[in-house]
Amino acid sequence: MVRPCWKPSVEGDGSRRGGDPNGRFDGLLWYKDLGSHVNGEFSMAVIQANGLLEDQCQLESGPLSSLKSGPYGTFIGVYDGHGGPETSRFINDNLFLNLKKFASEHQEISANVIKKAFLATEEEFLSCVRQQWLEKPQLASVGSCCLVGVICDGLLYIANVGDSRVVLGRAEKVVRGVTALQLSTEHNASIESVRDELQSLHPDDSQIVVLKHKVWRVKGIIQVSRSIGDAYLKKSEFNKEPLLAKFRLSEPFSKPILSPEPSIFIHKLNPKDQFLIFASDGLWEHLSNQEAVDIVHSYPRNGIAKRLVKAALKLAAKKREMRYSDLKKIDRGVRRHFHDDITVVVVFLDPSSVNRSSSRSSTISIRGSRGVSSLAKS
Amino acid sequence: MGKIRGFLLKHRVNTLFRCVFRRHRSPVGYHRLNQHPFCRVKPISRLINWTHNLRTKAKAICRSGSSKNLIPGRVKCDGYMQIGRDPVEEKPEPVAVPKGHMAVYVGQKDGDFQRVLVPVIYFNHPLFGQLLREAEEEFGYNHPGAITIPCRISEFEHVQTRIKQGRTTRKLLTWKRQN
């Protein structure tokens, strides 16, 4: 009873300040100011708003398969969980391994390999839910968005499920500056084409998308139309007891309501392509694509992801008619009333290193924090 | 002759120079203390009085300007505003919320919402958390603008006084998070 009361004081503890290679903590903020990957440099930052951090992220650089012959490159993942942290953590632990497995089988990186990795991760998670169905049925109501970028052989693959977003900053001589180019396709019911897609997939269901709290939601429950997890909206076997009624869909369904299929986009990298900003929707609800690109373009690389997070928090504070310095006093959990969990990964594309093979020997693997409470427990 | 004349000229120049010099600079110190204390002090004290008046008048203008919203540059005068006064009567400027506080709107459906300034630390209190949960059920997390709490103002004030009492008696311990 008493111990949880003392937890907050652990937050600033020096022992939890993991050394620079694995990032640092500052209260609810985790950040890695600058690191280098095969194709350039990167910066990462995560701010926690939920009681348990639901966002996860990772950057892997070096071999993308278990073969020595390659392929080599950089893998970036941003996973925005909902209903709990379990699915996003599961993806963080398994998706890259699955990608490596299929890349080894096919001896290449391709849209097909990435898609297979997504679907395999989904299947593994659903079997995990099935295994723990009796002791932990609420696992069936947990899900996650999943945004992945793979840079390999001068190509950039973007695969997305849900509403995270990646924006490319491209130097244009005409405009004098850097223009924003959104590369990801989002699956949020607030987008008309997504609602149309849902309606065409479920022609018999007039209630497939519902406006609630002035926000479009699939079945009046969830904003995204595609996700990993959310077993109770994929298979009827999970939409029943012992899952609590408040997490269940009242009517039975025959076809899965949500899909785990990623939208994949392939982009040939150009010397004008300067950087990529991967972020969960928590950032984009406060900053526009161009605003974010302008910030990255006009400030030093070191700590740029943290700067983007701060810019978003300042706007969040302004919207709630308070000061940024006061927002920092608000505990996790309650913070969710002010902003969502926010994950930002900025990846710089240095043309000199895109086709370089000398740096292949180095392997970089960095994961975002697991959040304040889970670290305090361990 | 020429030599003596020259000497005299030098003297004259010297005395003239000294006269000018005395009149303008060095005698000031002596005169102030001894011979003419008033004629020198007076302008200085007058200057001091003048600046003092200017300052008080400027203050008065600022104050009346901020309350009546007459002066366009009133934002600069925020420093002289009284704490109790609501500084954002017509234009909601978030900057004007006092440090450590934030604005929330309290009221019931279809009624008038009252703007209340709440200390930010109250938000971490479990009693306040209950109000926030109600707000979330009613409006969702993505409600644009300031937080709106759907309850009666009397109910809200009751919660505020309970938090205030709790703070003074049981202090921080009990309401640091339970989960």
UniProtKB/TrEMBL annotation, chain A:
The keyword Amino-acid biosynthesis does not apply. Its EC number is 3.1.3.16. GO terms for molecular function: metal ion binding; protein serine/threonine phosphatase activity. PROSITE patterns: PPM_1 (PS01032), PPM_2 (PS51746). The keyword Metal-binding applies. Its cofactor is Mn(2+); Mg(2+). Residues 41-349 form the PPM-type phosphatase domain. Belongs to the PP2C family. InterPro entries: PP2C (IPR015655), PP2C_BS (IPR000222), PPM-type-like_dom_sf (IPR036457), PPM-type_phosphatase-like_dom (IPR001932). It catalyses: O-phospho-L-threonyl-[protein] + H2O = L-threonyl-[protein] + phosphate; O-phospho-L-seryl-[protein] + H2O = L-seryl-[protein] + phosphate. Keywords: Hydrolase, Magnesium, Manganese, Metal-binding, Protein phosphatase. CDD domains: PP2Cc (cd00143). This is protein-serine/threonine phosphatase. GO terms for cellular component: membrane. It is an enzyme of class 3 (hydrolase).
UniProtKB/TrEMBL annotation, chain B:
It comes from the Eukaryota. Belongs to the ARG7 family. This is Small auxin up regulated protein. It comes from Cinchona calisaya.
